[in-house]
Specification:
With about 375 residues, this protein is an alpha+beta fold. Helices cover about 25% and strands about 30% of the residues. It has a six-stranded mixed β-sheet with strand order 6-7-8-3-9-10, sandwiched between helices. The two termini are about 35 Å apart. The protein binds adenosine-5'-diphosphate. Adenosine-5'-diphosphate binds near residues 14, 22, 44 and 47. The complex is composed of two ATP-binding proteins (XacJ and XacK), two transmembrane proteins (XacH and XacI) and a solute-binding protein (XacG). GO terms for molecular function: ATP binding; transmembrane transporter activity.
Amino acid sequence: MEDLHIENLTKIYDPHSNPVIGVEDLNIELDEGNFLVLVGPSGCGKSTTLRTIAGLESATSGNIRINGEVVNDQKPKERDIAMVFQNYALYPHMTARQNMGFGLKMISDLSKEEIADRVEEVAGMMGIKDLLDDKPSALSGGQQQRVALGRAIVREPQVFLLDEPLSNLDAKLRAHMRTEIKELQQNLDITTVYVTHDQTEAMTMGDKIAVLNEGKLQQLGSPLECYHQPTNRFVAGFIGEPSMNFFEAELKDDRLVNESLDYPLSDARLDAVEGIDDVVLGIRPEDAEIVATVGDHTVNGTVNVVEPLGSVNYIHTDIAGRERTIEVDGNQYADEGQQIAIRFPEDQIHLFDQESGDAVYNPEVNDETVARTSFEGGASGMTSD
Ligand code: ADP
């Protein structure tokens, strides 16, 4: 049985005076132990979804089921969930120990000793035993976040809800905490919904990710499904860093044509765009390559800026007046102002219907790669040759 089921969830704020859609007709099913990341730009409905699961907002329509039971009418504290907030929300006058035990004292009938034991055990697991007698003001951001996570873990809830829990940490600590939270979640095997606007967190932490935009689910799939087989242009542009480059073009006979492109299509790609006049060609920076000679699948560009990252270089290139990004090996360099030919290998391009934004062709991927983190009821299966 599913552990958490978001069923046709719609939330409209101020429905009578000034209706604003928070989230619209959202459907997501999670099995026990799943780690779902809700990701999307600011205002796409992530917090609304999380807060509705928690019971902090009421659903306008649709259901939230936890362990099969509709919990719409239950108060937050009656739902078997624990939430971790971005700002930690620790009580400043309480020690870490008191903060961690407080929720348990309120919601359970465990004895003082049992609570104390559980807090010690979780603090040990989180490496914060030495901090238990400190107040939040004496703790660093990372330590406060560990206490906040520990407070959620001691409750042993059915579902964890985490709302941008790493946003206040510096980049290095954030990267460290990503793996720490992922490991903890795997060990505890508690169903988790994690909200972030950061696609890197989504890619690295989720077994499933739900990409939202303007209150609507764009794709539900494993991170690699969303990366390799985006269902539409929005997902293709949102997942992957640096973002996919898009070229709007007209289909003329078997070629995609615009001011910078004259790109012949063959086989499955040509079949996929049949009947579509306005097409968008998508190419990821890491799939484009600088070549010595101009050919059928190349475009010309002028290097604007080179960003060296050590293992790779990002070559920001002007192609017909718009800046595009190409990722090359760290030892391949280009000079500012240099004219270069860039090849978009035909077996790496993505094609979209310009009008609807839907993906009509994604490159073939090794099924095992995607299946490794795949799940039932995932993204709509895109066909490729
Ligand atoms: P996210 O968490 O992805 O940034 P939210 O769920 O906070 O997005 O917001 C989704 C939409 O709902 C936005 O348009 C936002 O302005 C609106 N919204 C959120 N909370 C309220 C509220 N309390 N009253 C009115 N509109 C709201």
